[in-house]
Amino acid sequence: MLYLKKYFTEGLIQFTILLSLIGVRVDVDTYLSNQLPPLREIILGPSSAYTQTQFHNLRNTLDGYGIHPKSVDLDHFFTTRRLLNQVRQLDRLFVPSTELNTWLVHRDSETVVSASSQSSPSITLDNGAGLDDVNSPDATPAMRGGSGAPESTYNLNAADSSLGAVAPEGNQEQGNRDGNDDLTKEDIDLIDILWRQDIDLGAGREVFNYSNRQKESEEEKPSPQENKDRNEEQESWRNGINLQGAQPVDGETGESIPEQLPGLGSQTSLSLQECLRLLEATFPFGEETEFPAPVVTPEIAVSNEEVPSTSQGLPLPQQLPSAEPQLDLEQQWQDIMAIMELQAMEVNNTSLQTTSSSVNATSGTTDSNTAGNFGLSTRPTPINQDVSLHQASMPSCSQDFPQIFNPQLESVSITPRTTMLRLSSSNSTNVNSTFGATNLTGIFLPPHINSSSNNVTSTPILPDPFSTLLEESMLDEISLLDLAMEEGFSQAQASQLEDELDSDSGLSLDSSHSPASPSSSETSCSSAASSSSTSATFSEEGAVGYSTDSEVATVETEEGAVGGYQPGYSKLCRMSYQDPSQFHSLPQLDSISHNHTYNLPLSSAFSEHPELPLSSGKKTVRDKQNSKLQPPQDLLDKHSSRDERRARAMKIPFSNEKIINLPVEEFNELLAKHHLSEAQLALIRDIRRRGKNKMAAQNCRKRKLDTIINLEQGVQDLRRDKARLLKEKMEFIRSIRQMKQKMQSLYQEVFTQLRDEEGRPYPPSEYSLQYSADGSVLIMPRGLTTAEQNRKPEKKQKDKKK
DNA sequence: TCGCGATGTCATGGA
DNA sequence: GCTCCATGACATCGC
Q1: How far is the CA of A234 from the C1' of B14 (A)?
Q2: Is the distance between the Cβ of A698 and the closest atom of strand B smaller than 7 Å?
Q3: Of A220, A278, A512, A660, which is least surrounded by CB within 10 A?
Q4: Torsion, CA A151, CA A230, CA A310, CA A199, rounded to 10
């Protein structure tokens, strides 16, 4: 007991100092004189001094209406912690603590009661009004998440059991890592220990029973004191106070949940948490940006689902609580929702399911509602605090991101703005390079913190999540999904388009797109014909049967040479350029090693490749039969071309290859050297003609094939371009929609501030704002026609706003 | 036996 | 007019 006394005395003195820093009046004497009873009650068990009522009924402390004389100080303590926590949680990057989670579980039973008493003012104070912009189509998904409150509560409960007293450690870790110098480590430890006592000294979650919360429910209506508290929180925030280890009771959410119900208030807050986390995760300005070094712990940058949120002095939201106009929050919400939509479609998983899923798909997360809508970071199981940010699914960003920041934020630093603009100008194809291996936690984290406390995060080895998200095929699918969703395409149409993208077109030529394999077969036609001794008798065609005497024995060997023929690629190989010089003009053929001997004349093929196997195994039954029935010379003739046989029969003194391939001059010289008969000359000319025509036909067919291949590729390219253009179109449409919403918001704001000469507001039903070409804004009576406006634009110039 | 693809050949036209 | 080439049409072959 002495220890407790000493401990409390010292700790409370320090704590009082802290409270004074944030403007909270603390009567130390009162506390010291009454500290023991409540402590005793704490030790001995739940009591009126330390129950959920005291825990949550914090608003009673500062308004002078002390509940119990002995519990006032303790209430001060809780109030202080709550306030400090609220200060840190004003950034919205907060996850309800374990106590809060349990509290929500019980709250589930009275959802019906509380649902009706959800006070929008509290929402306004909490997260800014207009967050629940029902009129905004973009906001509807998150708002729909409100229906998932029970599920969320259940999940919170599940997370609660797993978290338990781990929270303090997390707090302390955060506190140690936190770059806030306003508190000494002793202060942090003190606060942390005090926080531990809430749980360790019997004040478990079960203490915060239902009956106590009923008392809270009776005080749902926001009191002026609550507003006062909030003002104090904001004030303390401005003072830069960021206590560590304070009990992570959700100052706003935890306190106001009885009023707001998790279905709306907490969810809205969590939605912003998710949104900000989304921002953090998606903004590419990492090490390269000059974003002011924030005071934030890596856990915040990583996850808010399990982290016992305490110190979260995120710089970004500092602008939010400081009298931020409602419009900004509203606008911000719309922007976030717009991004949510975009990202939901860019996520590589089933985006439709992601966007439509709410709390059901996000079990185990405390902020499952909007997290599910965001389609990212909704892991079914809680993640560690040190989970790398890369492990969160971070879809590519888009041009919508710049609009995330409200003007106030933009005024903080221009660098993010420029970065965002750069990002906005980047299409989806270069997002990957934009993000690259950028450590996204570096966006908000000082480098030293980031590197020291979250090693995993700074590990560059982790695969870039964007690498697989932005493949062309995925883009195509995304575009099609966008098309289906945005343009009212029927699902069948979308699936049809998808099929078209996935499958080859009707012109598909399978994978054998290699160009024609050159074959020199025709170039060496019947080289042996001239050397053979034949006894031919001319038929009516001139081609006759013949008998050989020297080649008979080589028949089977020649067939072995033919055995090199590969029917698998014969299709293209045979459609070959016959001029070997043309092979070099086809670079794609350099890496292809073909057997070009299959179509060579038997004699030449064999002479070039005598080592080829004799049995080709390709002989057909007919060949075998022929080999039995026909004499060997017939087999030779069979494997010779018709012109070769004719040439042999006509005793042409040179090969068909020469006949076909020699230039005209040389060919004429060749004919001149030999004294040939007319029949021989005619045959030679026919051989040359047919040979050339055969090559021409092969080239022609190859060209046809190439043309088809190119056309197929062109079709694929066009389809890809089409998908890309559709995607861009959807982005433009989305951007335009956002701009319209912003315009509408600005319009409302401007119009409501307008006053006539007598200080009366203009009735919206009678007046409207018109925008002139020069950028000025005029207020015009609604009855005034456009023509009149054009004729006399300066008439109402006096009403021009500011 | 038929269908089909590959190949060869012819006719034709253009360069 | 000749040559070369491209190409459609047809025939042949092999599977």
Answers
A1: 88
A2: yes
A3: A512
A4: -70
